[in-house]
Amino acid sequence: MYDNLETPALLLDEGRMQHNIERMQNRMNQLGVIFRPHVKTSKCLEVVRRQMAAGARGITVSTLKEAEEFFRAGVDDILYAVAIVPNKLDHALNLIRAGLRLTLLVESVAMAEQVARHGAELGVCYDVLIEIDTDGHRSGVKPADPVLPQIAAALQGGARLKGVMAHAGASYDLNTPEALAAIAEQERAGCVAAAEHLRAAGHQCEVVSVGSTPTALSAQHLQGVTEVRAGVYVFFDMVMADVGVCTAEDVAISVLCTVIGHQADKGWLITDGGWMAMSRDLGHRSHGYGLVCDADGNPIPGLAFGKANQEHGVLQWTGEGDIGQLFPVGSSLRILPNHACATGAQHSQYLVIPASGGQWKVWPRFSGW
Amino acid sequence: MYDNLETPALLLDEGRMQHNIERMQNRMNQLGVIFRPHVKTSKCLEVVRRQMAAGARGITVSTLKEAEEFFRAGVDDILYAVAIVPNKLDHALNLIRAGLRLTLLVESVAMAEQVARHGAELGVCYDVLIEIDTDGHRSGVKPADPVLPQIAAALQGGARLKGVMAHAGASYDLNTPEALAAIAEQERAGCVAAAEHLRAAGHQCEVVSVGSTPTALSAQHLQGVTEVRAGVYVFFDMVMADVGVCTAEDVAISVLCTVIGHQADKGWLITDGGWMAMSRDLGHRSHGYGLVCDADGNPIPGLAFGKANQEHGVLQWTGEGDIGQLFPVGSSLRILPNHACATGAQHSQYLVIPASGGQWKVWPRFSGW
C-alpha cells in the first residue's frame, strides 16, 4: 500500500479526523456555547475548513502567522491567544487594517497600557481579552486579583475590554473522569468569577472563553461561559489517550516510516523515522517516541520506540520470532504520535487517507511565526 | 537592539560560526584527511558555502531533500549517510542522472542486493558505502562480522563498493578528553579494520569515512582514514559544551524571545519562546530548554528555562531582586540551544549578526524530506 511513498511521511486519516470534529462540535452544541477551535494543531486550511463547516465560529491561533494565513483564506474572526508584546503590535495592526477582526490577549497593566497607547496613536481600537489563571500551570491573572480591574481600566482609548479567557493546561496531567470534570469546573468557575469581578468594577465583559481538549470533553455544564477553545482534539494523540479523553483508535495522524536495518543481537529495528519526523516530544513518557503500529495502523505489542536520532528510529522488539523475518528491510510501520501539535510541526504536508477511500490527497501545512 | 524584531527568532552569530568552521577545517588539514561536513545541522546554503570555502570537499546529508537542494546550488559530491531503502531509490536515481555524484549507504545483504538490482535494471552504477558499527550505539555492521564481505559481494552489477563509514554517536554521552580520545580511536580503528577485512576478502575499499563532532575534535591521529564527517560543530550547542568540545561562548545560534508576563509569587517569567521555537530537545538535561542569556548573549545566572508549552517559555528566577523590574514585559532574552540541529529545524530562517557589524542579513533554511 505504501510501497511508492517516500518515508518518513505524515499520514492523516480523514475519517478519524471528521469523527473527532463532529464529536467535539456536537458536545459544544449540547453545552450551548460557541466553539472556537485552536488551529495551532493542524496549521492546515483544509482541516480548518472542516472545523468551520461543522459549526465552529471563529478560530484561535498561537502565532500571528496563523492569523495571517487563515485570514487570507477567509477566516475573519481570530483570537490570538498568547499575551501580546510590543514587537508584534505592528503586525497585528496590519491584519486589523486589512479587515481582520483580531482579538488580542494581555495579562499585565504595563502591556494593557502599551496596547491602548499604540491603538490610540495609530487610530485603531484593539479588542482585548485578559488572561485568567485558574490552575496555576502557566500565565494569567487570578480571578480575585485586585490587578484585574486595573488592567481593564488601562484598556482605554486605543483598546477595548472584550472579555476574559482561561486555559486549564494542568488538565493534561490528569487521567480520571472525576479529576477532569473537577478541573473543567475549576476552569469555568474561575473564568466566570473573573468576569463577574470585572463587571462588579463597572467593566463590560462580553466574552468568557475557556478551554483545553480535556476540559472541553469533561465539563458537566458551562454556565456563564460564552465560548470554548480546544485544539488537539482534531487529531488526538497518545497524551490524550493517556489522559483518557480518546483511544489510540481515535488518533488521526501517524508517521509512516520504513525499516532500514536491524541489530538482531539486541532486538533492535532501525527505521528512517527519527526525532526529525516525530519531534522530541515524549509526552507522559509512557510510549517512547510514539505507539508503534503496522502499516494498517494496528498497534504491534512488543515493539517499543525508545530511542531516536535525527533521521533514525531505534525500536526494541521484545516479542517472539526473528525480527529480520517479521520486519524485513523495506517494510512499513506507522507511529502514533505522543503530541500531535509537535509531530505535525515537523512536516510540511499531510498525506490524507480519504474517508471515502480512493486516491491520496496532499494537504499542505505551514509553520513559523 | 532587537526592539523591531518580531519574536521568537533564530539568531546566528556569523563571527562565531566562522571561527568554528576554521577551527574544524584547520584540525582536519593537520590530521591529513578530507573533511566532508554534515549539513543536516544548518540546512542553509550560505552556511555550506562558507564550509566549502574553508576547504571542505563534498558534503554529508541526512535526507535526499538536502542532497537535492545543495546539488541545485552547485555541490556535486554528496554522501547520503542514512541506509537507503527501496522507496528512496527512484529519487536517488533522478539526482544521479542529473549529474550528482551521490554515494549511498547500506548495512545489509538484502538492501545491497536491491540497490545493485535497481541500478542494473535502470542502467546506473550506484556508489555505495557500508555502514560500520564501532560503538554499538545504533546501526551498522561490526568490523569483523562475516556478513561484511557478503554485503560487498552483493554490490555487483548496478552498484559498486566505494568504502566504509562509521559514526561514533556514543561520543555524545562522554565528557572527558581521555574518554573522547579513546572513542575517537575506537571509531578510527574499527572502521579501518572493517576496510582491511573487506580488502582481505578481495574487495576494493577506497573510502574510510569516520566522524562526529566530539571524535573529530578529539582524535589523536587518523591513520588509514580518508575522510571525516561532522555537523553540529558549525554552530555548537549546550550538549557539545557539556561534552567539553566547546564553551557556551562558541555557540553561534540562539533564540531571541520576549518577556510576555510574570507570575511573581512563583518567580516565573513567561516568554514567547516555547518549545516550538526551541524544540523539545532537553539535551543532557542540564540546562532545561536552553541556557538563558541577556539580549547581548551573556548568560544570566539564576534564570533557568525549565518548562515550555507550544508558544510559551516558563523561566524560573532564583536570584535577588524583583523580576518585574529586572525583566519587564517587552524585554529581550536569548536562549542558547541544547541541540543546534533540533532548534534550527523549528525555524525557516536565520537572522544573521554579521561578523563585520552592520545590518542584519536573512539566510533561509529548508526542512522536510
TrEMBL record, chains A, B:
The species this protein was found in: Duganella lactea
Pfam families: Ala_racemase_N, D-ser_dehydrat
UniProt KW Lyase keyword: yes
Keyword Nucleus (UniProt): no
Descriptive protein name: DSD1 family PLP-dependent enzyme
SMART domains: D-ser_dehydrat
D-serine dehydratase-like domain boundaries: 252-354
Domain of life: Bacteria
Family: Belongs to the DSD1 family.
Keywords on record: Lyase
Matches recorded under InterPro entries: Ala_racemase_N (IPR001608), D-amino_acid_metab_enzyme (IPR051466), D-ser_dehydrat-like_dom (IPR026956), D-ser_dehydrat-like_sf (IPR042208), PLP-binding_barrel (IPR029066)
